[in-house]
Design a protein that fits this description.
Helices cover 27% and strands 24% of the residues. The chain is α+β, with helices and mostly antiparallel strands and 441 residues long. The longest helix is centred in the N-terminal third of the chain and has 19 residues, at 104-122.
Length: 441
Amino acid sequence: MSHAAADAHIRFTLHPDYHPSIISTTSGPTSDAARSHLHDLGFRSTGPDTMVLARIDHEEPYYANAAATQLIRYGFTVEIDPSLQEEIDTEWSWCNYPYPWCTRDEVREVSAEAQRIHDDIAEGRLIIHLHADDGHTTVSVGTYASGLQRTVHLHGEDHLRQITQEYDDEAEALGEFHKLYTVAVRPGPAPLTERERSARNALTAGVRTKNVPARNLAGAATSAVKAAAPPTADPGEHEALLASFLDSGPQWEKYRTWSDETTIASHESLTSRVEFDHEARHRTDIAWTFAEYDGPVGERLWSATVTVGTPVALIHAMLSHLDVPVLIGTTEPHSALQDAGWHPASHPARTTWQAPNRSMTFEHALRSNDERWALYGRDDLNEIAWAIHLSPGVPHDLLARLTEAASDLYEATGQPAVRQRQLAPVPRLPAVVPRPAPRVR
């Protein structure tokens, strides 16, 4: 089938920071049409002229080549960078692939189905209610919110995730999941895997331009001021906060899991739940998990996770909201940060507010369907001292209370709020992700 000539140029290159993710750069009068085709082929916009293909199966070169072939057939001019062409010409193989009887095409079919599941979760079409570790991998249960309404059990991670069971009744699916995995069940989706986080970073980090000085939103060169150390909780402060919270709140029922590693606090209304992991040690370990439901056996409205080292003032603000919600009345959760002189900055997929000394950052990921809001210590999400992640649906009153606590915490550390207008700094690029060993995945 012939197509009319299209006046646009598309260039495909390897992502400089996240191999083997692919960057496409479009130019020309009909570049919008080219970008529409690329979106249908899995590319996602990261700027006015750039799109990124980031997958969890590391098959980006294969799909970029397929996209280039299709665009050429449509009449577009396509250029492939030599380093990417080398990746396309190299046939990869998975190391220790669990289905050795599969052909290469069958392996790609399994990975493509896993990618579709991942995209459904990331884009909000599949809502994950619960997850668990079955001793070998991650399992979860979720409901498709659009299309064919069904609830599914999922098994595996990344390019091996599969649907193992489908249910027409959501309550039946949740009950069966609890029966299968009992005390291992945790609320909400599982933490992102390394590949999922790398793919997300590739889609949100933008494109690094070599030999060009970084500039802020006003066009001025970014100041090379070293970020201050963020405030952190001392060892034992989280334990003390939990004990104080439970002692002063008779409406909360406390119980421990069979392993005695986790304390669970459930509100008497059965609509709020808090979990605390006593064994969390590393700065990226999740110490607290919060969840709120629309009824004793209802749907989860939102969830949040808090890592080790997070200042107790921030956790206290979240606990206080769960215990006694206060209607703050603001529709802008970042208002307290702006009043305290935090620097706003806009990016293709997110907006951030940084403390003037860059010790803390508040982030709103506009299109994320798992971690919509984040507050973390330091100015780079890849080098955090601690982090709070909140899902879509979190009440704006809670966000306002959290940002107000962050503003107060900043001022309490001896850094006075700078209330005059500041030039917004550009965030630093994420750390480079090591490239996988050649020809083996």
